Amino acid sequence: MTSHILSWIIFTPLIGAFTILFVPKSSAPLIKWIALATTAVVLGLVCHALTLFQPGLSGFQMMERTSWIPQFNVQYLLGTDGISFPMVGLTAIISLLACLASGSIKERHKEYFFLYLLLETGMMASFLALDLFLFYVVWEVVLVPMYFLIGIWGGPRREYAAIKFFLFTLAGGLFMLLGILSVYFAATPHTFDITQLVGMPRSLIFQQVVFMAFFLGFAVKVPIFPFHTWLPDAHVEAPTPISVILAGILLKMGTYGFFRFSYPLFPEATHWFQPTMATLAIIGIVYGGFVALAQTDFKKMVAYSSVSHMGFVLLGLAALNANGFRGAMLQMFTHGTITGGLFLLVGVLYDRSHSRDMNGFGGLGAKMPGYAGILTFFALASLGLPALSGFVSEFLVLLGSYQYSKLATGLSTLGIILAAAYLLYMVQRVLLGKLNPKWASLTDIKFVEILTLAPLMVLIVVIGVYPSMILNYMIPTLDALLKTLKV
Amino acid sequence: MVTANHLIWVPVLPFIAFVVNIFFGARFLKERAAWLSVATSTVACVIALPICWAVFRGAHFANDFTWLMLGTTPLKFGYLMDPLSATLLFMVTIVGTLIQVYATGYMHGDPRFSRFFAYVSLFMSAMLTLVISNNYLLFFMAWEIMGLCSYLLIGFYFEKDSAANASKKAFLTTRVGDIGFLLGFLTLFTAIGTLDFAQMNTLLAGHVGHTALNTGLLSMAALFIFCGTIGKSAQFPLHVWLPDAMEGPTPVSALIHAATMVAAGVFLVARSFSLFMLVPNVLPIVTAIGTITAFMAAFIALTQNDIKRVLAYSTISQLGYMVTAMGLSGLGAGTFHLITHAFFKALLFLGAGSVIHGTHVQDIREMGGLFKKMPHTAVTFIIASLALAGIPPLSGFWSKDEILLSAFGSGNYLVFGVLLLTAFMTAFYMFRLIFLTFFGQARNHDVHAHESPALMTLPLWCLAVGSVVIGIPGSPFMHHWFQKFMAEMVHYPEYEPSAVVMACSIAVAVLGITLAFVMYLKKTTWAPAVAKKFPSFYRLSFNKFYFDEFYVTYLIKPFHALGRLLFGFDANVVDGGVNGTASVTMFLSGVKQWIDTYIVDGFMNFLGTAVYFLNSVTKRFQTGVVQNYLLLAFLGFLVFIILELKLT
């Protein structure tokens, strides 16, 4: 098992998915338990891989290489490093917790959990694939279950949201495919192997064009302004656990793509694109913040806050220095935990009240003290309170971007003030003030729901108090990447 | 035996109390939650005081560990015990503990009793971390956690909309300043490559007058860091949150919004003093902000009727004093006033709390004649007021005198004049408060006042003693020991004590008290007459210079409007573009479908129809009757014959 640990991580969910197919439709509890056990096993495997992972190394580890389509030199090539491993860990954790939170799914359990596990396979493989062709395939594999998960179990406008999500990502993905093929044909010998492709000389104009092609693919996923409008719709319509997956993991696939492919493959184009990247980051941060401030729908507010927070990842990426990269990587992880938690909390409230209108709530702090405490905690984490993880990542990003551009840093701090504004405004409208008599019968948060949130809270506090714990895994790889970029 | 390494327990102990109280307080501890908080705070005090004492006698402690790598620079977290932190630690542990003892009585019977003490313990932990922290980042982290505690405690009675609004306002307003602070130390890190206080001091100390460092960048850093002070210490123009913060329970007002947290802003300037000394062009700005704040807040305090609001504006005014002192390079004077102010202002707030506890009203117009009913409260309150007004030999006199001396000695006579005027107003509004509250006739007979329990009056007396004696170390009786002690750390200009300054200071204080005595006890018709005589001044003061209205109209509303505007843009333009693309695609595919149906497919169908038609024509010839074929063959033959003949 140890020698093929990454394959085990990828295919265990698939095994679980096919096991579910053999269970009769009527035994829903069994299906749930299989799904839960599968995701738990995956987390166990990732923990096992963590013991094998050597944080001091900067290159790929635990690589697996098999020829897949020899005619085109396509390989089944897996490997992990300080950039992908934290994402794998995040995927395993969020998948388990979102699975635990899938109690709100009331129909067609068999299909739901089958697709859910298929999705996990796709996500894991996306973070572990080192062959561009394989990467493209698994990238698209993620799309299909997601489409159905939103389209079948979603809210009233689910079909619209699902199609919008699918077409947006697919369109971006096609540009990426063109980019992949260009890289393939430009390389001698023709290869999709990322370990060989990095470091090959490419002309600037080629780099620029192909960088843009990859950019379109990743920009949709992050999402970067103006490709973000699928996100609020998808989030609002998706069922709670799927929103959590979407915000917690899928968005990171975009920024991960920059770290893994765009940057090392096209170092000169990266420098050329730096100002644009910074500009887009700031637009995302400020614009997302302002729009979040205007929301009355709880879930939509969290969705737009994601746009703003992912802007910090981009800003760190744009900084092209050690602190910026560290901050960006850390922000990817912490945003997954914090925003994932916020979506879970929106779900907790929605399950009880069937409403997401923030203006309609009020005074729940007295009625649901446990919920209020946890929601306040996540709101504070999201607005970047020190000693919680969001602060460290934003601080590192700002420190990095400050070395690049004072103006960019100054403008982006507006996003931090806005974050405090929209989150505290939310807390006030939902929790404070007089209790709306309409909600007098709401019950406080249940143990199972706390169980989905507690691990995230632990992670947020631990990383916030001692960030080196996770940063030590990332730093060697990121520093090596900087060397590739010659800065 | 307490050693410096036990210092780590000083912030950790209250934190443990926070964790225990927040998780187990409501269910298991209940009223005992208070004792846990008080006990941890007391133990922290017991640990801290010997260490402070050692520092007062010249010792120096520091310890750290690497917390995070910033690029290749290690960022080390740890504690730094120098004269400044020892002074603050001394004050915070003592005042903090006394306030918690008081709160045990004040909060008795509150349904969220344990949560209150959890928050207070978290605050203590953060404040103590801030005081002993050795670098800007740790300082900032503690600073923000204090902001959080302030938010939670202002909104403690969150069912009240006013409390919920005030807490949000406090957090957001200070956050504006905090972002400045954050940018400030980012700039500093870029300029000198460290966030460590001790390293910064050594690095900058060697550079006074040299141009080896980028002074432009350092000025920017100092200016931005000062933004943090403006926010946290409620300086003009970000002072608006502090009066509203009085929505919180009174011990909170004393602990956070008078004695400790708001002083952290001044402490920040003191901590960055070597930086400010290096960039002299920033100091006048600091002085200006401080002086404007001191005057403006005192002016507003003249006409307020809520007992806590008067004290809140007084706090803003006194913080302005401290900031002015810092701006005038008076590190010793500013820090000294910070300490004395903490004692007497905490006492004033607790006294006000005792009055509210005993009367259940906050409007001073409904009080009157409380002296006999609440003797302990009244006497201690008067002691504190005398200290604040600057009557010798109480503590406030010595520290205020030092600040006035800084202004006078450095030749800033305008500042000196404004500060004197402020001192006059301070004496006036404080004694207006006292005469209206404790003397004269009871104006509302529904108020049945009673003295507070010993648990509350005992801390009052302790603080009263503090208010009297805490000024001694900085007075001529101890040869200005405190100022010299501070100067050991960073060198700053000192001035010879001046009899003129002292005389002016005493004169304005006595004048202010006398005027208040006349206007509010003897000739009670004067006050309304004055208000009528100067209506615009009165309205300006009563309406707090219309700051809130200004911010709401020109800042908050436009922000929300911009949010809605951008959301409209997002929904209509950006998403409209997306949906438009979809619609255009659908339309085009409709057109293509039409083309497909009627042209492409139409052509094909036409071909089919044509073939079918031709076929239907030709098939008529295929009759299967031999005679017809022969006839046709014969006709064909005839045609050929004719053609052949014609051609030839």
Q: Report the end-to-end length of chain A measured between terminal Cα atoms.
A: 39 Å
Assembly type of the chains comes to: heterodimer
Structural class of chain B: mainly alpha
Low-confidence stretches of chain A are none
Q: Shape of chain A from CA axes?
A: globular
Ranges of chain B with pLDDT <50 over ≥5 residues? Answer: none
Round the Cα radius of gyration of chain B to an integer and report it.
39 Å
Strand line-up in the sheet with most strands of chain A: 1-2
| Percent range for β-strand residues of chain A | under 5%
Which chains make the largest contact?
A-B, 56 and 50 residues
Helix coverage percent of chain B: over 70%
Mean model confidence by pLDDT of chain A? 91
How would you explain this protein's 3D organization?
The complex is a heterodimer of chains A (487) and B (648). Chain A has 487 residues and is mainly alpha-helical. Chain A has a domain at 272-482. Chain A contains 19 helices and 2 strands. Chain A has helices spanning 5-21, 28-52, 84-100, 109-128, 132-153, 158-186, 194-197, 204-221, 230-237, 240-265, 267-293, 298-319, 322-353, 364-367, 369-382, 389-404, 406-431, 447-465, 468-484, and strands spanning 61-69, 74-80. A two-stranded antiparallel sheet of chain A has the order 1-2. In chain A, helix 1 (5-21) packs antiparallel against helix 2 and helix 10 runs parallel beside helix 12 (298-319). The relative contact order of chain A is 0.10. Chain B has helices at residues 9-29, 32-56, 83-106, 113-132, 136-154, 161-192, 197-205, 215-232, 241-244, 250-259, 261-271, 273-278, 283-301, 307-327, 331-359, 375-389, 395-409, 413-438, 454-469, 481-487, 499-522, 526-533, 535-542, 547-618, 626-647, and strands spanning 61-70, 73-81. In chain B, strands 1-2 form a two-stranded antiparallel sheet. In chain B, 74% of the residues lie in helices and 3% in strands. The mean pLDDT of chain B is 87. Chain B has 25 helices and 2 strands. Chain B is an all-alpha fold. In chain B, helix 3 (83-106) runs parallel beside helix 15 and helix 5 (136-154) packs antiparallel against helix 10. At the A-B interface, helix 6, helix 11, helix 15, helix 16 and helix 17 of A face strand 1, helix 5, helix 6 and helix 24 of B.
